[in-house]
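If you are new to this repository, start here. Below is one unmodified record pulled from the training split, so you can see the exact layout before writing a loader.
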Amino acid sequence: MRKSHYIPVTADVPGASNERTCSLLRKAIKTALRLEGVTLPCEVDVLLTGDAGICQINREQRDVDRPTDVLSFPEFDFKPGQPPTPETAGDLLDSTGLLALGDMVISMERAAAQAKEYGHSGRRELAYLAVHSTLHLLGYDHLDEGPMKAQMRAREEAVMEELGLER
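And here is the target side for that same chain:
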């Protein structure tokens, strides 16, 4: 039985999965999980790609033929602010004792462009995208401009502040 999170990071673009980037992504994901009250060891698979790669995945999975910054593919349908617990997870755990939360795909090209556009570091943008995606895996969404989006933004900002990467 595992006692820690398992966060494999792979890349299909050269140089994207260097140790510094992988460490930042893992820290951002683990911080989001901790602040959301997730105490179970989880698996989150991360793919770093470019605009062409994320466009292809977006087209195949969502019928949207354009690149985006991050895609999230949750394994379960959790409610925001109601993390899985040892009592509620039960048969959701795999044979190693991990809760497979899902997958995230980040476009390194979009991350770099957005960092420049917003006037902050690429490091902050990558961490933000990982936090944003982790919250999607935990049931948060921003389909409307109302309470759902405000709730998700507030949680993102709390995690980014904890990481020392606030705006």
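Two things worth knowing about this chain: The radius of gyration is 15 Å. The chain has a mean pLDDT of 91.
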